[in-house]
Amino acid sequence: MLARYGQSWILFAVISAVGWGVWGFVSAKASKGTSPIALWATVVVIEGIIALPVFLKYRPVLSTFAVLSAISGAAGYLFFFFALRDGSAPTVVAITAIYPLITLVLNIVVNGYRPNLREVAGVIVAVGAIYLLSSG
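Structure (tokenized):
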């Protein structure tokens, strides 16, 4: 029904949120008793194995932005696992979930994007959330 109205992205976003929610939970479990670097390497290798057939079928071009996306994503993964080692999973996941704030700031600085009032309010709430979550 969503696809009929051009809204299939909503379903994909919900599935993605569920996947990331499960991922945060199981990552916290997996991070106990292992090195963050070992966990990161394991996850990246397994994801590579899963992605290999798609990569071979579609033969994507490795653009600069694709490479930068991979590097920043891999770094985010690694530091996420370090954060889970020392912090509580709900707090770590909540803080890392504000990554759209970084995307917004980069769009403002690099692309000259002008945020609307709702986006500015969201930034203020997100910064307040980081303070509340990290102040114990």
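The chain has two domains: 3-97, 98-136. Residues 3-97 form one domain.
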